[in-house]
Amino acid sequence: MRTTKAALVVAVSMVACGPPATDETGNTAVPSAAGSGSPALQSDHMPTDAEREAILAAVQGIFDALATGDGEILREIMHPDVLMHSVERAADGTRSSSTSTRNQLIARLEGSAEVLTERMWDAEVRVSGDLAMVWTPYDFYVGDELSHCGADALLLTRNADESWTIIALSWTRLQPPVCELHPDGPPG
After folding, report:
1. What is the pTM of this model?
2. Which among 33, 49, 105, 136 could disulfide-bond with 120, CB atoms 3.0 to 4.6 Å apart, if both were Cys?
3. Using H for helix, E for strand and C for coil, what is the string for the chain?
4. Tally of structural domains, the chain
């Protein structure tokens, strides 16, 4: 029998991770980090209220920068080497994707004559140590016109001051009339 490297990695990973530890009652044990200077581990990766607020504030910073044309906000909340990807399916079914940098995004928003409005809702947030993930639907307007919509997926890392930095941002780009719109209706 021949073993592939992938099968070996999976087998080693399964042994290394093992089943979750249980306490004397048979419930899954959640290790405490009390006194260690790091947050307690949570088996469901749900953020505390303070973590959720700080994480979503960083994400909202992107939308605030778009609305004001202020690239300095993006410089503060996005890692200089942030990975950004968009995925689009045109009306004819053609699929495409694009990659951009923080500096390209800053140039676009600072060069826009129109107000750019992006809004999120129903954001899902997960945290594991100093890594967070956000998944949220959004709609995007250029001036008063709906441009597109989709879902944003972001990865963030926690800084020493407990703020969060965006290290990756990917989004789908859907065109009207397929768009799911913000529950509050059009902006303004």
Report:
1. 0.75
2. 136
3. CCCCHHHHHHHHHHHHHCCCCECCCCCECCCCCCCCCCCCCCCCCCCCHHHHHHHHHHHHHHHHHHHHCCHHHHHHHEEEEEEEEEEEECCCCCEEEEEECHHHHHHHHHCCCCCEEEEECCCEEEEECCEEEEEEEEEEEECCEEEEEEEEEEEEEECCCCCEEEEEEEEEEECCCCCCCCCCCCCC
4. 1
Residue 99 belongs to domain with CATH number: 3.10.450.50
The answer as to whether 143 is a domain residue is yes
Q: Where in the sequence is the domain holding 83, given as residue range(s)?
A: 49-173
